[in-house]
Amino acid sequence: MGKGLRNGTMTSTDRWDRTSQGARRARLVEQARRFLRARRDAALGLAPTRILPRASADAWVLFWCAARRVDDAMEAGTTAAPHWRRRLRSALDADFAERCVGALLEHPAIVDADRLQRRLLRGLTGLEAEARFDRPRPMLEYLALLEYKSVPAMEILDDLLFPDEPRRLVAKHANLFAVSTQLGDDCRDVRRDLGRGRVFVTLEELRERPLKSFVGSPEFRQGRTAMCARFLAEADGAARRFQSARSRRRAQVLSAMWSHALATKQVRPTREPLRVGG
After folding, report:
1. What is the band of 1 on the pLDDT scale with cuts at 50, 70, 90?
2. DSSP3 helix / strand / coil % (the chain, rounded to 5)
3. Is 205 left (phi over 0), alpha (psi -120 to 50) or beta?
């Protein structure tokens, strides 16, 4: 009997796999996986697929590929946020990223198309706002940016990971886990971002020290790692209140994967040369 079949009855995720559009979706998923592998996007792009059922893993790959395609296009300056806002609200022929989102909408865990659109629009606002972070800002402003920049994507992942849990707990876990991972990502990419004129180092961290020397110091990395760990511990606390053992196990594995990243070079600043003053 095939995966997901229970007592001879096809589950909703089986139906998502076996609709008449299944072959088209499978080709789209394979394209998305190839894109993420070529981009070496393992930390959040491909790692969650290890703990998701196949259909939900495919849905996440579709979304994450779409998000990265849009992010890359905006970073390269080939498109801007207003373009994608118009596309979200239009009936234009879909490009690759939009076909991925369209396929994601067919998944049973994504039951509210309006809510998905609001999340996508919040993510666009975050991408737009980060370009204005051209100097160190207070921690509260930086955390507000992360609320737009990274939380919407984690909310979508948590919908797929924990479909039967109370929405309030899932939202809390998504918020805290997203901030933890984004703090680490911005630490890792700090030199590249500075070279592009974006400063994701806060005034509280910097404390009037020279920016260029500080981002290369062990103190910066250790401080960021400690912040990541604090937010992760709070996310774990929310996940321990999930109702099902399956959800709690998935949350533990997700947390363990990120804890491993915190303990390795993945959260340390890269060695890219700095091209900024300070």
Report:
1. very low
2. 70, 0, 30
3. alpha
Tell me the fold of 133-273.
Farnesyl Diphosphate Synthase (1.10.600)
What is the b/e burial string over 5-23, where b = at least 16 CB atoms within 10 angstroms of the residue's CB? eeeeeeeebbebbeeeeee
Q: What is the pTM of this model?
A: 0.81
Specify the DSSP class assigned to residue 269. Answer: P
Contacts of 119 (CB under 8 A, 6+ apart): 152, 153, 155, 156
The torsion defined by the Cα of 156, 51, 146 and 171, in degrees rounded to 10, comes to 50
What one-character DSSP code corresponds to residue 131?
A: T
> Where, residue-wise, is CATH 1.10.600.10 in the chain?
133-273
Count CB atoms within 10 A of the CB of residue 75: 14
pLDDT (tens digit, 9 = 90+) per residue, 180-197?
999 999 998 999 899 889
Alpha-carbon dihedral 61, 64, 66, 68, rounded to 10 degrees: -130
